[in-house]
From TrEMBL:
Coiled-coil ranges from the UniProt annotation: none
Location(s), subcellular: Membrane
Species of origin: Amycolatopsis bullii
Xref: PANTHER family: SODIUM-POTASSIUM/PROTON ANTIPORTER CHAA (PTHR37958), SODIUM-POTASSIUM_PROTON ANTIPORTER CHAA (PTHR37958:SF1)
InterPro entries assigned: Alkaline_pH_Ca-Antiporter, NaCa_Exmemb
Gene: chaA
Protein's UniProt name: Ionic transporter y4hA
Magnesium listed as a keyword: no
Amino acid sequence: MVAALRSFLLSWTSVTPVLGVLVLALAWGRDLGPVFVALVAVALGATVLAAVHHAEVVAHRVGEPFGSLVLAVAVTVIEVALIVTMMVSGGPDTGSLARDTVFAAVMITTNGIVGISLLVGARRYGSTLFNSEGSGAALATVATLATLSLVLPAFTSSTPGPAFSPTQLTFAALASLVLYGTFVLTQTVRHRDFFLPVAADGAVKEDDHADPPSNRAALGSLALLLVALVAVVGLAKVESPAIEAGVRAAGFPQSFVGVVIALLVLLPETLAAVRAAQRDRMQISLNLAYGSAIASIGLTIPAIALASVWLPGRLLLGLGSTQIVLLALTVVVSVLTVVPGRATRLQGGVHLVLLAGFLVLAINP
């Protein structure tokens, strides 16, 4: 017992959140040079990885599909923290940061995570199996949330520009929360079996690869997860000027900052989905992908809508025409992928090409 506790306390995932807080204390309120900026960036990335690791431990303890839900919420908390801190430090010019980040998260989850998982799973097992009922319901929720929160603001006429009026923004925020809550109840209570891995005969697979952690280990990971989230929020605020300066120095548009945030936040989620695909648990990979997209919109938009009361400048949520086309094509392709309940390398390749198109157009609109 003592040896196991010592090993836990000395592991990199346990040490990193504490080091992240120490780096934050040293960097807070100071004018940082290039070396310290690089150190903060490394600490931020490592702390994000550690946070998601501890979320995975808690998720493994509570089991599926609750586990995927815990991961998605943890990732979204980090995403909201990054967006709000950068909007506060960036001033009025960051009014579109929430839109850029959420749209990037949707494209990365529905095309990147799904595409890589399908490719890895199909390459190893020939084809991948999943529950079309659960995945289809999740995809429908993603499409509805994205349309209500990101597409409609580009077509409303109450206020100039791609923005909601206060009444419209309130409705979008409340609708997002209702849809998210309904999805959570469906996934975890009413139709839990729709979101569990399936075998070729349609039977639900039991995950017997590893014993769940003890209550003590899960509680320890929960405490370290909270410490890591505090460190991530603070380090993001410290690092935000360097991120924006790096995007400008590379010659990329300001909107690419949102892509950087989404890539940083969703990298650990991608690794977890790929590991599930390698174990022939494609349903878990899709739960992670679509669950993260739903949480990204369903929790981020209400949080940003509430924060917009204090944030400077207007909150711009409406997508441009190019982004709307990419979103529509993604939804159509995703429907064709999910409906059969079986996919091959081809579907994975199609989704990854869509992700590549999004990244190219984000760099060169």
